[in-house]
UniProtKB/TrEMBL annotation:
Residues 2-90 form the Transketolase C-terminal domain. It comes from Nymphaea colorata (pocket water lily). The keyword Transferase applies. This is Transketolase C-terminal domain-containing protein. GO terms for molecular function: 1-deoxy-D-xylulose-5-phosphate synthase activity.
Length: 95
């Protein structure tokens, strides 16, 4: 419980999907591959607890981390952003 997984490996941008949006992330990966952009797709699987090891790995290996969810303000993306800020991940190269 509480562990996400990397579904597809890339090097340019990491998409962190939550729930049914992981499928949309895989579609985006296919479309962007045509433009030469290599996308990592990760399935968060759980909102709580956050898989901090996965988040740190994505930040270490990518300049851009994008969360993809169906939620609203204060949802999964906000939860991830708060962790990244408190963990100092936003002080480095990750955007």
């Amino acid at each position: 419980i509480g562990k996400g997984k990397v579904v597809a490996e890339g090097k340019d941008v990491a998409l962190l999907g939550y729930g049914v949006m992981v499928h949309n992330c895989l579609q985006a990966k296919s479309l962007l591959a045509n433009l030469g952009v290599q996308i990592t797709v990760a399935d968060a699987r759980f909102c709580k607890p956050l898989d901090i090891e996965l988040l740190r790995q994505l930040c270490r290996n990518h300049e851009f981390l994008i969360t993809v969810e169906e939620g609203t303000v204060g949802g999964f993306g906000s939860h991830v952003a708060q962790f990244l800020a408190l963990d100092g991940q936003l002080d480095g190269r990750v955007k």
